[in-house]
Description:
Blueprint lengths: L14 E5 L1 E3 L12 E3 H13 L3 E2 L1 H5 L7 E6 L4 H12 L5 E4 L12 H9 L3 E4 L12 H19 L5 E2 L10 H7 L4 E2 L20 E2 L6 H8 L3 H36 L5
Parallel strand pairs: 1-5, 1-10, 2-3, 4-5, 5-6, 6-7, 8-9
Helix pairs in contact: 1-3, 1-7
Zinc ion binds next to loops.
Amino acid sequence: MPSPTPIAAEPGPVVALMYHALHTGATPAGQDPHYTLAADDFDLQMQEIAASGGGSSAATLLQGTSRARIVVTFDDGHVSNHAVALPLLTRHGISADFFINPATVGTAGFLDWNQLREMNDAGMSIQSHGYDHVYLTQLDGQRLRQTLKAARDEIEQQVGAAVTLLAPPGGRMPRDLLSIAQECGYTHVLSSEPGVLAAADGASRPLPRMAMTAATGHLTFQRWIRRDHVAIGHERLRYRGLAFAKRMLGDTGYERLRAVALSALGRGA
Ligand SMILES: [Zn+2]
């Protein structure tokens, strides 16, 4: 079992941002508009991160080779991660972790292994989002271990770099996920729950991330990267309200309600 290292080895809290897809015009077909940001907005955000001490992948931070206090991550392996995010990250000297599902690699709308290898060669970190996008809370213990191991093995084999980080799909975490993930060779789990990482947190709890969505205003983004505890506390409260709604409605009921609300706003896709 790898020995867990504190992710924030340097003093001072770290904030991690969670992105999904980017677009340069209209939201690509089949992509959730809520989780798709305009490339220009992302460019401006990376510019500000570069100007405020820089940003890095969690993997780089763990190697102790970065003093950045802002972590940039992407979930799902959307094809725009290569076409749009990679050149912008490179331009601003920022590395990021990309959490992908081997089952969707090379399918319509998603990155293929060549693109992922190219991203790894460019200094990006390619990590695990589970094998497919099934919520880990829906799997029994044996199936959970199988899926976590299979994802890690296949990404390491295809990309040729160590996979040590896990971001569970939909942020859904079964009990004991941390110890099961460590048993399967991961050193850290990144959650979808907002917050900051303190040096003292180590690997003993999932590392929080701030979800960057189409609705995240620029002022809010600026407060988050300054690790403003009022703005981050506000987002935590909002997240807890949503988590409560999800528990009450169940995953299917919640997704259905959200689809109705989005189409009522004329944003359904
Ligand atoms: Zn996901």
